[in-house]
Amino acid sequence: MKKLLFLSILFITILATSTTQAQDYKSAIGLRLGYPTSISYKHFISEKGAIEGVLGYRGYTYYNWLNLSGFYEHHNAIASVDRLSWYYGGGASIYKWSYDDDFYPNNDFNSLSFGLHGIIGLDYRFDFPLNLSVDWIPTVILGGEFLSGFGGSYGALSARYILGGK
Fold first, then answer.
1. What's the CA gap between 108 and 11, in Å, rounded?
2. Cα–Cα distance between 111 and 54 in angstroms, integer?
3. Would you say 67 and 91 are in contact if contact means Cβ atoms under 8 Å apart?
4. Is the pTM of this model over 0.90?
5. Exposure of 45 by Cβ count < 10 A (0-12 exposed, 13-18 middle, 19+ buried)?
């Protein structure tokens, strides 16, 4: 699973850097350094509206999960700082959980959960093809055996390569 994630990141990065030129901020791809570490792709569909897709993986000794998330984000400029905006929005996720304990094999399981999210954050575009953002994502996870309920500790610092003009 880790090899597949690594190869996917490598393929997308090579494809994106070989076929595009960095201009104004229209689309960007990169890493979300948070919980879990993820691949992030953001694309503006209007002057203020963006969609963001996130693919994340987290693994531990006995359990791991894979999540696929989508967000709509509404950006608002902060007039006092060029290229800085704040954004808010919402989205949803699907999680694939697994637990494999060699010591207690009767406790093993695989499960699916769904998440509903709010999102609020800051987004900064540099003069060169780099975008940084930091956000907080309050989450409600529904269903599944492993985890359900409210999670207020989700969020991340994202670093993305800017792909194309606006």
1. 33
2. 20
3. no
4. no
5. exposed
- Taking alpha carbons only, the member of 74, 158, 150 closest to residue 116 is 150
Measured between alpha carbons, how far is 95 from 117 in angstroms, rounded to an integer?
13
- Residue pLDDT, tens place only, 38-59: 999 999 999 999 999 999 998 8
Give the 3-state secondary structure of residue 1.
coil
Per the document, the length of the chain is 166
Residue 85 or residue 2, greater confidence: 85
Domains delineated in the chain: 2-162 (2.40.160.20)
Distance CA 20, CA 110 (A): 40
| CA gap 130, 143 in Å, rounded | 37
The model's confidence at residue 92, banded by pLDDT at 50, 70 and 90, is very high
Nearest to 96 by CA among 69, 75, 76: 69
Report which secondary-structure segment, H or E, holds 125.
strand 109-125
Rounded mean pLDDT of the chain? 80
